[in-house]
Hints:
single chain; 165 residues; mainly beta; Jelly Rolls; five-stranded antiparallel β-sheet; four-stranded antiparallel β-sheet
Amino acid sequence: MTETKYDKYLFSGLEPGGKPSAPGHGIDLLSLDNEVIAGSNFYRISWLDPKNFQDHPMTVHLPPHIHKYTELLIHLGTNPDDPFDLGAEVTMIMGKEMEKHTFTRTTTVYVPANFLHGWWEVKNVTRPWLFIQVNQGLMHSAKYYPQIFPRAIRDRLPPLEDEWE
């Protein structure tokens, strides 16, 4: 195919700089940030399908963390008869109080800059749905606070490094 002047603004799949998700974490359709295209904020779009969860239930047990910039976590159902039916159950922990929120409907979570949140857990996936993550900075940033979790949970967390000092 012949390259054109504006090809650089069209992305199909993980081209040109996306990274595939870990097993059980859905399929990243797009991963975009300032390293992929200068001036772009951080965006990730993932397709979550029941077959991706058969052998690998999806639980992202990130410790509570903050981001430098506002973040939107968009959970978008794909049921043509009821687009608000997510097709999964998602649990999100919010605030220093670790307030638990569980939803099964199309939901957008607004996370202000420097607002403590995490973990994020997906279960009971019955149909494919889309997850869109928008971080309103040029790169994804996270500062982790594992000390907030009880020791028994902290010991099960993967090793993580802060993405900014």
